């Protein structure tokens, strides 16, 4: 009977739960889904991570290649993110060129990398003006159940922490690059941006970590990307119902707690990987 | 009601604090003959032309049964539209959806087309202002007007509103907000660079104060247009 009501009036069904300050899956309004992360699962990639946020699954693979540095910045390398939402993850995506959702997510990840300065592009330079690393970060969603931005940001961070680049020396006589695959270094990750997404309901209620259904019923979304020392890298609110300054403050405090949770999880995973 | 193309010069608005002054505004409405509504918005040297078609027929696969389908197309000045344009289109579309009363025109489409004529800083804010004026010109029912305000934060925390291209490049952070006219609530926000929470609150407060000037300019420019004819 509840299933029938849910199909006919999904919004009313949802409101009944919100009145009791909880959600259909039993979570509180400010509670995140169980987050799990698995690092280094793709052996052919230079770094990889799989993140599961409830049912939402995103895998990130980082491959490093050589390229000539840009002419206007000869001492910088490149980081090129790309988010792919294949038809596998949800019935709403079709095969073919990337849809709007994928493009917006790719732009968001590119902005996060740029704003948070997660990697200093100068670190990726091998020989100024001649050779630099380019890191292709491919994020593929395997299961879409809402909150794709949080999962992608976390997957990217975990994968970058896992990347090992071999040492490259330029041979003076032949001017060719010599790659020493035996000696590998981890990347210097300077900051740890963590994204926290909220959905706005009926112009007043804010819920954290929306699932796919909740996103469809929501009247607006908000994503806050926070760094250590509570520095904000990105406040992404693509339209939707208005928010007052006070509501924003609540979001900020929730984002700070989330950052601590994620950082703890990341540190545990990295520590468990070290013996390898 | 087709008035003759009316050009309105905006006043140079400047609050008490010298660094928080907005550039010279200008707005011209009803300048294109084909779209149902059109507007050209100038902020300093940044200029955006907007055209609105709607409410018009919508393709069956895009129609929504209980409200209007809003579509935004943003054309950059040079080159083909890329991923950044798609992201901006999504933000402008969602902002318009929050302001437009789509429920009054179900199963129709409202298309907003924006063409960047010149870019000298604060582009997204100018696009939002042009879109709002064009929607008003087309007579699309809205529950509130909206405006875009850009803030630039430089390394020592000074806030500059409506920055030029040069100021944006030198700033530590650039924040663009869309605010509504009824309660100055935050409709849309997109930021570049990093900043602290208190700086965000300051920028938001400054943007809310500046939005009053923009809304007053909207009102004056519409009053002038309709009082002549």
Automatic annotation (TrEMBL), chain A:
Keyword rRNA processing: yes
Protein family according to the UniProt entry: Belongs to the RNase PH family.
Gene (name only): Exosc8
UniProt protein name: Exosome complex component RRP43
UniProt keyword terms in alphabetical order: Acetylation, Cytoplasm, Exosome, Nucleus, RNA-binding, rRNA processing
Entry-linked PANTHER family: EXOSOME COMPLEX COMPONENT RRP43, EXOSOME COMPLEX EXONUCLEASE RIBOSOMAL RNA PROCESSING PROTEIN
This protein's record includes keyword Acetylation: yes
Domain Exoribonuclease phosphorolytic: 31-166, 193-256
Cellular compartment(s): Cytoplasm; Nucleus, Nucleolus
GO cellular component, one term: chromosome
InterPro entries documented for this protein: ExoRNase_PH_dom1 (IPR001247), ExoRNase_PH_dom2 (IPR015847), ExoRNase_PH_dom2_sf (IPR036345), Exosome_comp_Rrp42_subfam (IPR050590), PNPase/RNase_PH_dom_sf (IPR027408), Ribosomal_Su5_D2-typ_SF (IPR020568), Rrp43 (IPR033196)
GO molecular function: identical protein binding; mRNA 3'-UTR AU-rich region binding
GO biological process assignments: exonucleolytic trimming to generate mature 3'-end of 5.8S rRNA from tricistronic rRNA transcript (SSU-rRNA, 5.8S rRNA, LSU-rRNA); nuclear mRNA surveillance; nuclear polyadenylation-dependent rRNA catabolic process; rRNA catabolic process; TRAMP-dependent tRNA surveillance pathway; U1 snRNA 3'-end processing; U4 snRNA 3'-end processing; U5 snRNA 3'-end processing
Any Pfam family: RNase_PH_C
TrEMBL record, chain B:
Main location group: cytoplasm
UniProt-listed CDD domains: RNase_PH_RRP46
Keyword line: Cytoplasm, DNA-binding, Exosome, Nucleus, Phosphoprotein, rRNA processing
An annotated GO BP: U4 snRNA 3'-end processing
Localization (cell): Cytoplasm; Nucleus, Nucleolus
Transmembrane segments: none
GO molecular function: DNA binding; RNA binding
CC terms in the record's Gene Ontology section: cytoplasmic exosome (RNase complex); nuclear exosome (RNase complex); nucleolus
Domain of life: Eukaryota
Record domain Exoribonuclease phosphorolytic: where: 22-141, 145-209
Any Pfam family: RNase_PH_C
Family note: Belongs to the RNase PH family.
Assembly and oligomerization: Homodimer. Component of the RNA exosome core complex (Exo-9), composed of EXOSC1, EXOSC2, EXOSC3, EXOSC4, EXOSC5, EXOSC6, EXOSC7, EXOSC8 and EXOSC9; within the complex interacts with EXOSC3, EXOSC8, and EXOSC9. The catalytically inactive RNA exosome core complex (Exo-9) associates with the catalytic subunit EXOSC10/RRP6. Exo-9 may associate with DIS3 to form the nucleolar exosome complex, or DIS3L to form the cytoplasmic exosome complex.
UniProt name for this protein: Exosome complex component RRP46
Natural source organism: Dipodomys ordii (Ord's kangaroo rat)
Gene of this entry: Exosc5
